[in-house]
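Hi R.,

Quick one: here's the Ribosomal RNA large subunit methyltransferase H sequence you asked about.
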Amino acid sequence: MRISIVAVGRLRAGPEKTLLDDYLTRFDRTGRGLGLGPARVIEVEDKKNAGQGAEAALLRKALPKGAVICTLDERGRVMTSPDFANKLGGWRDAGRQDLALIIGGADGIGPELRAEADYSLSFGSMVWPHMLVRVMLSEQLYRAATILSGGPYHRV
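And here's the predicted structure, written out as tokens:
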């Protein structure tokens, strides 16, 4: 199952980009034998600052056709890492070819796009910087792959 992190905004070179790339590389290595990956980041940018609706249109256009759509949203479900791993494994085992994990802009994801999502995930009730959410998500993808592989990275 291919995984796309579809996000509003551009992540420039720096510590967040370095961490993101590192975790996605780890995920790709670990997930390959499990039928997970590759993972990629697709960035969209609303250069006219037209708001949530314009961002939603750009995000929607960037989604792989037929992908499971999972938004990252404060109203989403808070999960444990093993639960997230099981969710990924379930989508993979159901024969889904693509998963799109959507990270909105500063004002979040537009309500129409949220309503189209198959699932919504939250990293808690605190608001996180969107660039850090990418890093946290990539780390959780790697952690999920290690959980599914029975590896030692995640200790319960």
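The chain has a mean pLDDT of 95.

Cheers,
M.
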